[in-house]
Amino acid sequence: MPHLTTDDNVKLFYEESGSGVPVVFVHEFAGDYRSWEMQMRHFARSYRCIGYNARGYPPSDVPADGERYSQDRARDDIRAVLDALKIDKAHIVGLSMGGFAALHFGFTYPQRARSLVVAGCGYGAAPNQRQQFAAEAEAAARKFEEGMAKAVEAYALGPTRVQFQNKDPRGWHEFAQQLAEHSSEGSVRTLRGVQKRRPSLFDLVDRMKAITVPTLVMTGDEDWPCLEPALLMKRTIPTAALVVMANAGHTINLEEPAAFNQHLADFLRAVDAGAWPHRDPRAMKQAILGR
In this structure, which of 43, 207, 226, 258 has its CB flanked by the most CB atoms within 10 Å? Predict the structure, then answer.
């Protein structure tokens, strides 16, 4: 199994397929590198596609020290993937936890990103939900401490995942099975170190305004915690476009793979052709009908 080593000596499992311009896929909390299989198959025909498991997700290492899990570590692990594979710049595609990592990567290492895809990103970001999210993250961590089976029973049927189950019971069952194979220790440390402690998107507006990398924000229209943050990113990032997928929940790359792949393909083509726009400042004036 191929592994690479981060700057703090954590081994990360990865796989790659295809050749050409690199695309790195960064998974969500309830997923792993396998979550991107339908994207890897599709895009490896034209791109060099890389998927990896975050720290805490075997066959990547599961560090015992909870302080080795954080939003900054998740961000820097993307850089570690690029460095180990000798990639100067790549398209960075992240969902949920991976979307947060992709956004923070864009803040800190814009010169290493050809583009950013920030999908399903925003859980716990709303100012009036911060305490609720921290409490729910801690409650979820305690469930995962009791073992994966009990935790998965609750987590895989959250209010933004039932859409997937209703549309594609077979696909949802595979997702839940893969979640059940995760490390309970890694899941607990990720919930407490990355999810619970990450900063609110609403506190990062000034950093968003400085992004010049082409950015695609994607969300399902029933991914309730991510709708308002998606609009925030669209309004604030001057290179951002927003895709809202109809009647869709959180795991949009699994729930609606064909539509997700089409939106992503159109975005990557525009970026690689040098045709992705920077927003005209006139579009941000407060007038409704005219100037």
Answer: 226
Residue 286 is predicted with a pLDDT of 81
| Secondary structure of 82-121 as H, E, C letters | HHHCCCCCEEEEEECHHHHHHHHHHHHCHHHEEEEEEECC
- Per-residue model confidence as pLDDT tens digits over 174-230: 999 999 999 999 999 999 999 999 999 999 999 999 999 999 999 999 999 999 999
Tens of pLDDT, residues 67-91: 999 999 999 999 999 999 999 999 9
The whole-angstrom separation of Cα 214 and Cα 267 is 9
The whole-angstrom separation of Cα 98 and Cα 104 is: 10
Q: Count CB neighbours of 286 within 10 A.
A: 4
Report residue 18: phi and psi, to 5°.
90, 180
| φ and ψ at residue 22, rounded to 5 degrees | -75, 140
Cβ neighbour number for residue 257 with a 10 Å cutoff: 17
CA distance 105 to 8: 17
